[in-house]
Amino acid sequence: MTTPLPPKPVNLPAEPPLTRMSNEVTSLRASVNKLARAQNALLFNVKALSDQVQSLSGTVQHMIKTMRLGAGEDDVRRQLH
Predict the structure, then answer these.
(1) What residues have CB less than 8 Å from 23, skipping those under 6 apart?
(2) Which residues, other chains included, contact 62 with Cβ-Cβ below 8 Å and sequence gap of 6+?
(3) Which of 13, 18, 39, 79 could covalently link to 66 via disulfide, CB atoms 3.0 to 4.6 Å apart?
């Protein structure tokens, strides 16, 4: 027995070139907008991280000054609390 052949695909009319180009431009515009939003989010996160690093740096500098060799034990306790 032979297997029947599948039906031939229906030939759909080709999309007009200007319509296809318009759709591609629309798709590219959406991609650019997504990239712009992602870039803004990244810049926001970098700024927040930079602020945190600056704050941590200030804290470490303060701790170094507090724990310098000449500081008395009472001064260290007072400044850490």
Answers:
(1) 15
(2) 79
(3) 79
How much is the pTM?
A: 0.54
Cα–Cα nearest to 75, from 63, 60, 57: 63
Alpha-carbon distances of 74 from 3, 44, 64, 69, 77, rounded to whole Å? 95, 42, 16, 13, 5
**Which two structure tokens, joined as six digits, stand for 73?**
């034990």
For residue 11 the two structure tokens come to: 């030939």
Residue given tokens 């650019």 in the structure block: 32
The pair of structure tokens assigned to 39 is 């870039």
The answer to whether 59 and 45 are in contact (CB under 8 A) is: no
CA angle 21-27-32, nearest 5°? 125
